[in-house]
Amino acid sequence: MTTDKQRAFRNDLLIASVLFVSGLAISGLSLAAIAARQSQDVAQATPPTQSSPPEPQTKPAESKPGGERPTTPPPEPARPDPDAQKTGAQPVLPPAPAEKTAPPVQQKK
């Protein structure tokens, strides 16, 4: 009986060792391939600019109070006021569900 357990243990150990060594080999080959072509494949999000640097501005941009922001279509409230609802405006959002309450939990006696 112990020889069967020892044989099974040895087989499991052999399989685990083979898997571990093959994982190390694949990792080593992958790292070698990455190192070999690292100088060729450099990822860059944007190409470098060749233009001259912008001229320094001495004063900030002029702000216009009361300026309008372009919005297309114009924003609408989620819940129209009661006067608008009387004239037929539909709310954008469905009505909120009522809270559901359950009877209180009874304490064990």
List the total number of helices.
2
| Shape call | flat
- Number of E-state strands: 0
The major beta sheet can be summarized as: none
Rg (C-alpha, Å): 36 Å
Tell me what portion of residues adopts beta-strand conformation.
Answer: under 5%
Distance between the termini: 56 Å
Q: Structural class, from helix and strand content?
A: mainly alpha
Order of helices and strands: HH
Overall average pLDDT? 76
**Helical proportion, percent range:** 25-40%
* Low-pLDDT runs: none
Summary?
The chain is mostly helical and 109 residues long. The protein has helices spanning 2-37, 82-86. The radius of gyration is 36 Å and the shape is flat.
Give the arrangement of secondary structure elements.
Blueprint: H1 2-37, H2 82-86
Verbal overview:
The chain is mostly helical and 109 residues long. It has a domain of 33 residues. The protein starts with a helix and ends in a 23-residue tail after the last helix. Helix content is 38%, strand content 0%. The relative contact order is 0.04. The protein is built from 2 helices and no strands.
